[in-house]
Fold this protein.
Amino acid sequence: MPAWINQRLELAGLTLTETEYAQKPTDWHSHECPHLTLITRGEIQAGTRRAIWECPADTLLFHNRQEPHYSRKPASATRGFQVGISLPWSRNFELSWESLPDSARLTHPGLKLLFYHIYKEARQADDASGLAIEALLIDLLATMRGVAVEAAGARPAWVARADEILRDEFAQPPSLRALSTELNLHWAHLSREFPRYFPSRKNTPSIAVS
């Protein structure tokens, strides 16, 4: 979990925090409430059950309630701004989370602009900020339902590249370590995720460690 909290704002059913992440990796965990995270400085690697994302500053992530995920970060300082959304707040505005993805990287400019406005309101935190943040968040969640998001169910970018390599080297498939080096992935992650996208190859020598 984050090492310390720079700023914390509690509203009626919403928790807004700005955090600096610890050097120690955050292991698999989940949250009872849905939350959005904006990387405001540095970078992290965010992983879910279906995807791994490299997340530099300006990346906006969404994790639905009870969705397992983890994060890794380099030595440089990394900060993130999070909005946690309680279930009572959701019910108060008749919001349903079932129609949203388990996890997603939100790249649509409109979504990011709305979240940056939420971040600005949280930092200035005046008497009108609470209502403004609620209105912006409702708008953001409604917009999420109407635009395409990069959901964790989508194929990671490395899958297409791996398919090209395996097709080009069909006669002599590369080892797992060679393939992981070519794809810039850790071999353990590739070993775990390979059968998900290449089920017909799961027992071939092409993914043997050597």
